[in-house]
Amino acid sequence: MLYHLSKILRDTRIHLDYNECDLPLIRIRDSDTLTLNQVIMSKILPAVREVLLEASPYDLAPGKPVPPQLLWPQGKGCGMAILPLPDDFLRMLTIRLSDWERPAQVITDADPQYRWQASPFPGVRGNPSRPVAVITQDATGLVAELYASNRPGAVELSYAQYVAMPDIIDQHITLPGRLYDAVIDRIAALCTTTLSTNPTNTNL
Description:
By secondary structure, the chain is of the alpha+beta class. Helix content is 25%, strand content 27%. The chain has helices spanning 5-15, 36-54, 57-60, 180-197; strands spanning 2-4, 64-65, 78-84, 89-97, 105-108, 132-138, 141-150, 157-164, 168-169, 172-174.
């Protein structure tokens, strides 16, 4: 859903138990002091990003489709495929190749399982019955390494959906409706931390 920033500001102030009609909540003592609305605005994107990373995939579906640009270092349908990821990629929701029996388990290159993907034994590394997708970075940017396939020339990307990095466009931001309250809670929490640790904001 598309939300205007004015709604997010209003709902966050309510969550923080502030009234927009009161006298100024922060007395400007110097040029470094932030108004409350500025503090809230600075926390929107970080808060949304945190919530999107932590949320259940079911709360995020459907995602955006990843363009089907598979690269096959060992030949099409053989072994590992590489899928370049969009510039606004934040999180993979689901991914499946046409010869896989199910969607892949998605991990990162920091996961201990990543080293298993180099194993010469099919039962250890990812395979069509137990596929693995590894989010990693190569010289071109973020990619998904897809393990593994064994049908030369016959494998395509069935689907891949991802969560995009949050962005503010024309004073609006797109959020999953069921996560809106969680986003407001997170913005308020980040604001509380900033206001409680900023010595210039002592006259709230």
